């Protein structure tokens, strides 16, 4: 057995991404056990905090996706309890989870990100749906991409190619969040770059290229085996690989993230990487991108996760 002590993996929660979180938690627990770590998997419920206080683990490994898991709430509570955990600070999570705030910081840092506007649902009520959408269409050329300002797994996200498609995309988006992020849809290759820091500074794993059969990397494409093709490492030139890895590391450091993150980007025809969003709790399921990247780097997942735990205990 490992000398790390006991690690609690948090999985589940009450967000729209509960099922994905449970799958991620199961995979992380299995990987840690394979590396000799004692693991207990716990859900987010009223019994969690009394359990952590009564029998304090040596560390917590959250695999919670969506609200609560990525918005800094759980991280803030764990910090209050003084329990080491794998992941970013509550403040960094809040900043990264809110996509418009993250894009503001990324653009200020001089990195490319598509032009966008963030519109709350109440704005449509106050100013009128048609007037607001006309203003959007005039300012941002088609095609566009609509997604919840806060959320993940592509839930409520859709590509929009005509003005007529915009209202239905907004309705779908508002089912998952009160604010919609509408941005220019950049054409190019969809790339994901995971960044890990086991105590020696953030390092980019090999980029993963995503080719969805449907042409859209939506929820089904993410979590249904066999309908999306992944290239790990991505089919990039050395210069392209360097540029996307540098963007991901800069996004990680710009947003003051810790331990692990995944940056989603588009590499356009001119070789320019465009930041789309960053995930502070990337999926760790059997079809997720970080495990694919780790495999491309010949990293053992159990060892990687163990090293992440070891690093936060040592802080």
How would you describe this structure in keywords?
globular, alpha+beta, Dna Ligase, domain 1, Rossmann fold, six-stranded antiparallel β-sheet, 39% helix, D-amino Acid Aminotransferase, Chain A, domain 1
Describe the structure.
- Its main location: cytoplasm.
- It is a single chain.
- The radius of gyration is 19 Å and the shape is globular.
- Strands 8, 9, 10, 11, 12 and 13 form a 6-stranded antiparallel β-sheet that branches.
- 39% of the residues lie in helices and 21% in strands.
- The mean pLDDT is 92.
- It is built from 12 helices and 13 strands.
- Helix 3 packs antiparallel against helix 4 (90-97) and helix 6 crosses helix 7.
- The protein has 3 domains: 6-87, 3-Layer(aba) Sandwich (Rossmann fold); 94-112 and 187-298, 2-Layer Sandwich (D-amino Acid Aminotransferase, Chain A, domain 1); 116-184, 2-Layer Sandwich (Dna Ligase, domain 1), CATH 3.30.1490.20.
């Amino acid at each position: 057995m490992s000398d790390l002590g006991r690690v609690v993996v948090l999985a589940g929660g009450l967000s729209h991404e509960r099922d994905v979180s449970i799958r991620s938690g199961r995979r992380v627990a299995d990987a840690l056990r394979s590396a000799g770590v004692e693991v207990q998997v716990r859900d987010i419920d009223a019994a969690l905090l009394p359990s952590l206080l009564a029998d304090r683990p040596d560390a917590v490994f959250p695999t919670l996706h969506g609200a609560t898991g990525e918005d800094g709430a759980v991280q803030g509570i764990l910090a209050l309890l003084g329990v080491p955990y794998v992941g970013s600070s509550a403040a960094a999570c809040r900043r990264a989870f809110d996509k418009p705030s993250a894009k503001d910081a990324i653009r200020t840092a001089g990195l490319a990100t598509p032009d966008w506007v963030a519109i709350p649902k109440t704005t449509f009520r106050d100013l009128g749906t048609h007037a607001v959408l006309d203003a959007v269409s005039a300012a941002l050329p088609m095609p566009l991409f609509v997604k919840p300002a806060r959320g993940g797994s592509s839930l409520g996200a859709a590509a929009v190619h005509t003005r007529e498609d915009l209202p239905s995309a907004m309705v779908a988006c508002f089912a998952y969040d009160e604010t919609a992020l509408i941005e220019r849809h950049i054409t190019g290759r969809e790339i994901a770059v995971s960044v890990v820091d086991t105590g020696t500074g953030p390092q980019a794993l090999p980029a993963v290229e995503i080719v969805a059969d449907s042409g859209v990397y939506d929820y089904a494409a993410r979590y249904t085996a066999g309908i999306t093709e992944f290239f790990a490492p991505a089919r990039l030139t050395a210069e392209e690989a360097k540029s996307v890895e540098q963007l991901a590391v800069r996004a990680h450091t710009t947003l003051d993230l810790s331990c692990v993150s995944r940056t989603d980007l588009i590499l356009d025809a001119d070789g320019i990487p465009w930041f789309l969003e960053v995930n502070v709790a990337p999926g760790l399921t059997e079809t997720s991108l970080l495990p694919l990247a780790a495999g491309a780097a010949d990293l053992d997942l159990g060892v990687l996760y163990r090293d992440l735990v070891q690093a936060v205990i040592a802080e």
